C-alpha cells in the first residue's frame, strides 16, 4: 500500500550526452552571467586550462587547487581569486572535491554554479556541502549550495581510472540504497534509486572490461545522476553516518570507505527495510548484502578496512562513536551488532544479515 509522503524536488537543469561540454558557454549566458571562474583539482588543471581557452572571453581564468574535504582556508583563497578575476559564476570541472569548492564559494556569495561532473559521486545534484576547519568536518544544507546547471558528458569520463570508476560508482549506489529505506522516502526518489542502481550494476562490469566503452560510461553517469538526486532528496541513515565517522576519525579515502561498507550496512538493514529494499535486492539475486559484496569483489574493488590502514582498536572506537549520536535507521543501531558489522568490514569477510 502506498504510504503518505512529502516530496520536494530540487530544481536543477541537467544536460546529458556525449559532446555536451560544448554547451558550457551557452549555459553561462543562460544563467545571465558574463564570466566563469573555472575550478579543478591540480590533477585536472590541464583539462581546465583547455576549457578556459575554448571559452575565450566567457572564462575568467582557472583556479586549480581544489582538494578533498573542502578546507575552509582554501575556500577563502578561491573566493579572493573569484573576486580578483571579475567572475560572476563558477564552473566546476571534476568530481566531489572540485564541486565541493564551487558549492563552498556559492554558499558564501550565492553565485550561480555550472558543474561538469567527471566522477560518479553524485555531489553535483545535492544542496549539501561538507567542509573542514581545524580538522573538523561539518555538513551544511542550503538552497544556495545546489548547482544551477549540471552537464554530464560521458566523453569526459573515459579517462577516469577503473579503480576510481568502481569506487565512485559504489559510492553513488550507497546513496540509492539508503534513499530507498529513508524515513522520508517517496515514490519518485525510490524509482530513481532502483534505476540508478540498475544502471550502475550493468555499467561497472562493462567499464572494468573496457574503460573506453562509451555506452557503459554513459549508463554509469546516468546512474550517478539518479543516485545523487536521491541523496539530495531524502535523508540518509546508518551507512552514511558510519562512513562519515570512519572518514572523519581515521582520515580514510571517501569512495573506498563507501565501497567497503555498503554490503555490510545494506545487510544490517535488509530485514528491517524489508519491502522497501526488495526492488534493490532483486537486482542482486535477492540478497542485497551478499549480492553487493559479490558484485564489488567481481569488480576488483577494495574489500577490507584493514587494507586502508585501520586497526581493530579503531573499530572499537568507530562503534562507540556510531552509537553515541543516535540517529534514525530502519534497524536500531546497537553497539554489539555494529561492532560485529565493523569486524567483518575490517576483515573483508562476506556480510551477514
Ligand atoms: P574527487 O573529486 O576527490 O576526485 C578524485 C581524483 O580524481 C581527483 O584528483 C580528480 O581530479 C580526479 N578525477 C576526477 N574526474 C576524473 C576523470 N574523469 N578522469 C581522471 N581523473 C579524474 O573524487 P569524488 O569521489 O568524486 O569526490 C569525493 C568528495 O566528494 C568527498 O570529499 C566527498 O565528501 C564529496 N561528496 C560530497 C557529496 C555531497 O553531496 N556533498 C556527495 C558525494 C561526495
From TrEMBL:
Domain Alcohol dehydrogenase iron-type/glycerol dehydrogenase GldA, chain residue ranges per copy? 11-154
- Keywords noted in UniProt: NAD, Oxidoreductase
Keyword Cell cycle included in the entry's annotation: no
Under the heading Pfam families, the entry gives: ADH_Fe_C, Fe-ADH
Question: Fe-containing alcohol dehydrogenase-like C-terminal domain spans which residues?
Answer: 166-346
InterPro entries assigned to the protein according to its UniProt record, in alphabetical order: ADH_Fe/GldA, ADH_Fe_C, Alcohol_dehydrogenase_Fe, MAR
Keyword Cell cycle in annotation: no
- Per the record, the domain of life is Bacteria
Please list the GO terms describing molecular function: alcohol dehydrogenase (NAD+) activity; maleylacetate reductase activity; metal ion binding
Coiled coil where? none
Protein family: Belongs to the iron-containing alcohol dehydrogenase family.
The protein's matches in PANTHER family, at most eight in alphabetical order, are given as: ALCOHOL DEHYDROGENASE, ALCOHOL DEHYDROGENASE 4
Identification of the protein by name: Maleylacetate reductase
Organism of provenance: Celeribacter baekdonensis
Amino acid at each position: 500500500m502506498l504510504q503518505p509522503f512529502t516530496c520536494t524536488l530540487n530544481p536543477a537543469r541537467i544536460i546529458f550526452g556525449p559532446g555536451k561540454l560544448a554547451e558550457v558557454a551557452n549555459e553561462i549566458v543562460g544563467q545571465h552571467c558574463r564570466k566563469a571562474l573555472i575550478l579543478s583539482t591540480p590533477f585536472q588543471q590541464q583539462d581546465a586550462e583547455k576549457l578556459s581557452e575554448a571559452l575565450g572571453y566567457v572564462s575568467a581564468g582557472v583556479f586549480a587547487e581544489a582538494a578533498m574535504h573542502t578546507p575552509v582556508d582554501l575556500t577563502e583563497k578561491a573566493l579572493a581569486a573569484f573576486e580578483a578575476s571579475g567572475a560572476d559564476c563558477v564552473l566546476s570541472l571534476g568530481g566531489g572535491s572540485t564541486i565541493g569548492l564551487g558549492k563552498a564559494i556559492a554558499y558564501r556569495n550565492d553565485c550561480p554554479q555550472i558543474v561538469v561532473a567527471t566522477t560518479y559521486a553524485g555531489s553535483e545534484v545535492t544542496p549539501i556541502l561538507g567542509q573542514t576547519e581545524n580538522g573538523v568536518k561539518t555538513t551544511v544544507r542550503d538552497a544556495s549550495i545546489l548547482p544551477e546547471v549540471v552537464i554530464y558528458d560521458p566523453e569526459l569520463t573515459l579517462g577516469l581510472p577503473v579503480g576510481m570508476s568502481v569506487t565512485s560508482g559504489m559510492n553513488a549506489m550507497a546513496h540509492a540504497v539508503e534513499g530507498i529505506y529513508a524515513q522520508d522516502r517517496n515514490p519518485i526518489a525510490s524509482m530513481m534509486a532502483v534505476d540508478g542502481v540498475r544502471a550502475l550494476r550493468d555499467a561497472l562490469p562493462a567499464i572494468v572490461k573496457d574503460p573506453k566503452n562509451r555506452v557503459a560510461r554513459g549508463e554509469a553517469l546516468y546512474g550517478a545522476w539518479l543516485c545523487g538526486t536521491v541523496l539530495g532528496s531524502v535523508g540518509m541513515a546508518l551507512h552514511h553516518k558510519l562512513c562519515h565517522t570512519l572518514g572523519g576519525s581515521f582520515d580514510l579515502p571517501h569512495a573506498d570507505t563507501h565501497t567497503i561498507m555498503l554490503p555490510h550496512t545494506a545487510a544490517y538493514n535488509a530485514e528491517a527495510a524489508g519491502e522497501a529494499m526488495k526492488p534493490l535486492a532483486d537486482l542482486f539475486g535477492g540478497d542485497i548484502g551478499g549480492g553487493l559484496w559479490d558484485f564489488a569483489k567481481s569488480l576488483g574493488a577494495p574489500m577490507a578496512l584493514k587494507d586502508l590502514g585501520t586497526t581493530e582498536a579503531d573499530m572499537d572506537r568507530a562503534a562507540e562513536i556510531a552509537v553515541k549520536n543516535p540517529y534514525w535507521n530502519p534497524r536500531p543501531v546497537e553497539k554489539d551488532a555494529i561492532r560485529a558489522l565493523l569486524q567483518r568490514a575490517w576483515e573483508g569477510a562476506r556480510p551477514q544479515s
